[in-house]
Amino acid sequence: MVGRDWPCMSVPDPSSIFVVVPAYNEASALVATVAPIIEAGYSVAVVDDGSTDSTRQTLEAIDGVHKLFHVVNLGQGAAIQTGMQYARENGAAIVVHFDADGQHDQQQIGALVAPVLEGRADVVFGSRFLRASDLKEVPAAKRILLRFGRVVSGILTGVWLSDTHNGFRALSAAAVDVICLHENGYAHATEILDLVRRAKLRYVEVPTTIRYTSYSRAKGQRMGNAFNILVDALLRKLFL
Predict the structure, then answer these.
(1) What are the residue boundaries of the structural domains of the chain, listed by start?
(2) Fold designation for 14-239
(3) I need a labelling partner for 32 at 20 to 30 A (CA). Which of 3, 43, 138, 156 fits?
């Protein structure tokens, strides 16, 4: 954990915690994913990233969510940035990144945001590698890919996490204000680490459980995507 001192936060109203859900062709999973978050009292901002299925229609039919739309598919990083900017413009005290495919558990949001509320961190990263029970759930091939990603991101950014590409994160309002993503695709995960280091934000990891279903596995990243992420991250390092 590194960085500056921020005052301890007090967020008595869960609606001041905005859960940003980037969604691309997630019509079949979207309702089941966001319903428990809404029921928990959090504010939910879903960003339809130019889906080509019925995600837009599904989102428009859901009550109690903030609905944002990209005309064309820009990428997960772009969708997250859109959601974060909207959340801050609407008074978010904390922003949580949450995948649309049902992998994340809304019951773990409380543990994720706790270090921010307690004033111990500005950014909190979920990790599948801190508890044996969570690691056991990760498919073997996925573990190898994630370990590779950890090394690449660590070398490029100087921030060494146990689980670099976990999309479950929490950011304080102050952190959101200094993190502006330019990587539209999956390489945004590495860009976030670089921005955290540059801004000297304090960060911690907390254990998280990822639910791997047949649906989420089918939607997951391929080895080819890993290569594209590496190229994008290297280009950013060379030219920015």
Answers:
(1) 14-239
(2) Spore Coat Polysaccharide Biosynthesis Protein SpsA; Chain A (3.90.550)
(3) 138
DSSP the chain: --S---PPP----GGGEEEEEEESS-HHHHHHHHHHHHHTT-EEEEEEES-SSSHHHHHHT-TTSEEEEESS---HHHHHHHHHHHHHHTT-SEEEE--TTS-S-GGGHHHHHHHHHTTS-SEEEEESSSSHHHHHTS-HHHHHHHHHHHHHHHHHHS---S-TT---EEEEHHHHHH------STTHHHHHHHHHHHTT--EEEEE------HHHHHHSPPHHHHHHHHHHHHHHHHH-
- Residues near 237 by Cβ (< 8 Å), separated by ≥ 6? 156
User: pLDDT digit of tens for each residue in the chain (240 aa)?
Assistant: 444 444 456 566 899 999 999 999 999 999 999 999 999 999 999 999 999 999 999 999 999 999 999 999 999 999 999 999 999 999 999 999 999 999 999 999 999 999 999 999 999 999 999 999 999 999 888 888 888 888 888 898 999 999 988 999 999 999 999 999 999 998 899 999 999 999 999 999 999 999 887 776 666 555 445 545 554 545 455 445
